[in-house]
């Protein structure tokens, strides 16, 4: 399969389905993948196929390359809608994640004050106070919660740490006191299907407990390493979207 490996530490800007004109910040090596999830649908491929030979970019290099790109865009009269931490794996695994967030806030305020800062994370490290403090500094704290069923997560998202427990993650997400956006992938195939009420209804109950500012639901957009997976239909996403809105939470859907 073709995989998408992002340059490091800065890539784009790219047009995001959900976020607008996005300048990407990849805190992982630019020659492979480092992640504590091994999702069946990951566009970067499976962990076993993404071994890296280089190190994480340093805090100093991230700030230097980010400012260079922001100056270039500023001089061209082009400004990003969002600075997005994503890339080749889980961004919060970077040893200097909290400091890099602080650096990014300063550079955003200097060169593109209207831009939002977004972090796309799998929520595994939200139990760490320093990580939570950093995430409270960003505009869009986007945390993955594909289901609230541990067995399903182990089948679909495949956490690499045996101690992973979605119930603990949910408790950590509540600690944001609403400053969190929940992002959920809905799909089917190869023994997976989280579009039914069996999974949707408990997920809705959990959303009410977390009280996020909004919810993003989406489905497969690119080739996946597991070729048996299938997109959720627009009708299925629309049904789930309306159920989220019915409990008073804003929801967007990407088809």
Topology at a glance:
Layout: E1 10-16, E2 20-26, H1 59-75, E3 82-86, H2 97-111, E4 116-121, H3 129-135, E5 140-144, H4 150-156, H5 166-174, E6 181-185, E7 187-189, E8 192-193, H6 197-210, E9 214-218, E10 230-231, H7 234-246, E11 250-254
Parallel strand pairs: 2-3, 3-4, 4-5, 5-6, 6-9, 9-11
Antiparallel strand pairs: 1-2, 7-8, 7-10
Helix pairs in contact: 1-2, 2-3
Summarize the structure.
The chain is of the alpha/beta class and 255 residues long.
Overview features:
single chain, 255 residues, alpha/beta, TIM Barrel, eight-stranded mixed β-sheet, three-stranded antiparallel β-sheet, 7 helices, 11 strands, 32% helix
Account of the 3D structure:
This protein is α/β, with parallel strands linked by helices. The protein contains 7 helices and 11 strands. An 8-stranded mixed sheet has the order 1-2-3-4-5-6-9-11. Strands 8-7-10 form a 3-stranded antiparallel sheet, with helices on one face. Helix 1 runs parallel beside helix 2 (97-111) and helix 2 (97-111) runs parallel beside helix 3. The longest helix has 17 residues, at 59-75. 42% of the residues are buried.
